[in-house]
Fold:
Amino acid sequence: MSQDNNHSNNNTDEQNAAYTPPKVWVQDKDNGGKFANINRPTAGARYEQALPVGDAPLQLYSLNTPNGVKVNILLEELAELGVKGVEYDAYKIDISEGMQFGSGFVDINPNSKIPALVDHSNREADEPVAIFESGAILMYLAEKFGKFIPLSLSKARADCLSWVMWQMGSAPFLGGGFGHFYAYAPKPLEYPINRYTMEVKRQLDVLDKHLKDHKYMGGNDDADYNIADMIIWAWYGQLVLGKLYDAAEFLQVDEYEHVKRWAQNIAERPAVKKAVELSLKAIV
Structure:
């Protein structure tokens, strides 16, 4: 047997060896993967960096990942309607470079995740309002401007909020679970890939069964399009359209014909096209 074959077998043995967690976990080695150089078990700022503030009433600090695209979509949809006060400056927070740990960003989002938004719309009277978590930002903006969310207590509002919260609870299995182990982990591992693939396909089936009888998440009229569609499309719509993790074939997304129809319909909206290609200003 060649030396190369011996080395390959040793790697396989190491990968398949049973892991016994220690009594107390410590970070004593690099965990590997795409973001290993910035992952730490602690929060807070790592360096001083003030955030720029433009002239627009809304200041967005983000990246065009699925979580960032959600907010882009709503801002662009509001702009398409000609709503006043939705003008915004958008700045790039490059998470691969650790920009989310700059002091200015941590001040507005102690969780150091994109996106974050600051509302300066009443600069003379009020303190700026900082909002983090994509779902919170979408709800804040939709309610502030009275668009893309049912405002009265009703089944329509309950449905919208239920699907928004469904996405917030489900997407970590897609991104942090499936996406990480399928696309970003230092080596493929069968158990986690199988575990999260099964859950993502179950979630797609949930959506497919719902969308069989619905044009949008909230109903069949164009007026039913709302933040639930935007927030779910950014992850699951882009997934079935082949825009995430190069995983469309692996997940057999063509099985979910109703999700694909819905995703393609939303992808053709002018605001959505602008949102996914949004130009973000560099922070220097």
